[in-house]
Amino acid sequence: MAAMTHLNPEQPIEQISVAQDLTYNWRYDATRKQLMRLYENAKRDQWDANLRLDWSVDVDPEAGLVPDAAIGIFGTPMWDKLSAGEIERLRHETITWQLCQFLHGEQGALLATAQIVDTVPWYEAKQYGATQVMDEARHVEAYRRFVQEKLEHEYAVNPQLKQLLDTILSDSRWDIKFLGMQILVEGLALAAFSVMRDTTTNSLLRELTNAVMEDESRHVAFGVLSLREFCRDLSESERREREDFVYEGCVLMRDRILNREVWERMGMDADACIAAQLESPFNLEFRRRLFSKIVPNVKSLGLLSDRQRVRFATLGILEFESNAPSDVDADLAEENRALAMAS
């Protein structure tokens, strides 16, 4: 993994040097039908954040946009000691931190997908990737507007998320970008968005999340379809290297959801708050759901060896290996059935 980056809020423009290959493909026969299907769906499903979302909806982050049970220390003695005003502030800080991390992750996805368009060798993947670049730009637009107009203050990118994004963006291999962004970051984001959609009490945030999720499910499918083909031909050493990358990425994603920055901004004992959060019933379920699609997708790519299974068991996420992987195959089968009935 790349070295940890220390962010300077006084210098918002950051540059990193990356190795970047560019691949032409002069064959336009489009033999990868599933990728072309995704491309057609992506064209059909483009949306405009200014038109689809009702930005006039009132947002009161101090009243709670998600249940208080989602806050890591809820129900503990630390929570009981908070005044009504401190609880209102903590609600505001917690949702702001979470949505800012969504925003930062979407910018990372924007940059990574632009790189994928350059580096992936297949014409069909380049064409679909271009639609995802537009998706990610729209997600950045929507979350930026929500954070700035409705929450009115921001958090910097979480160090663990930044470390993973730097690693994805600085690796010259297109399949590592797919693994890191399409399988790990997008897969985890899709699970986090589903929790947000199911628990938020605010209609604007719910509709924003719904709209983004429509795109994210295609993005994960893009990664699964592309990597299945690539991973079939990996050597044993190459496979082990990619398993290591996936495991290290899962560790970073597990550690990044502990909200340390929130507890520190609140002036609370961050270590004690994190210890309580690790035992919170809501957050235990949240962490479980984050990996519910990642693990079966990794398995479907052939990256869940016995060695990897031991490490996933240590992380407490091996239980998901028997879950259904991405809905790519089910979606395709359903479309084929519909076409057969129509004919």
Helical proportion, percent range? 55-70%
Distance between the termini: 51 Å
Radius of gyration: 20 Å
Largest sheet: none
Mean pLDDT: 90
- Poorly predicted spans: 1-7
Number of strands: 0
Helix tally?
15
How would you describe what is shown here?
The chain has 343 residues and is mainly alpha-helical. It is 67% helix and 0% strand. Helix 4 (84-119) packs antiparallel against helix 7, helix 5 runs antiparallel to helix 8 and helix 7 runs parallel beside helix 9 (236-255). Residues 1-7 have low confidence and may be disordered.
List keywords for this structure.
343 residues, mainly alpha, 15 helices, disordered N terminus
Short précis:
The protein is mostly helical and 343 residues long. It is 67% helix and 0% strand. It is globular and about 65 Å long.
Question: What layout of secondary structure does this protein have?
Answer:
Layout (H helix, E strand, L loop, with lengths): L32 H12 L4 H4 L24 H4 L3 H36 L3 H29 L7 H12 L3 H26 L3 H29 L4 H20 L4 H6 L4 H10 L1 H10 L3 H7 L5 H10 L12 H15 L1
Helix pairs in contact: 1-5, 1-8, 4-5, 4-6, 4-7, 5-8, 6-7, 6-9, 7-8, 7-9, 9-14
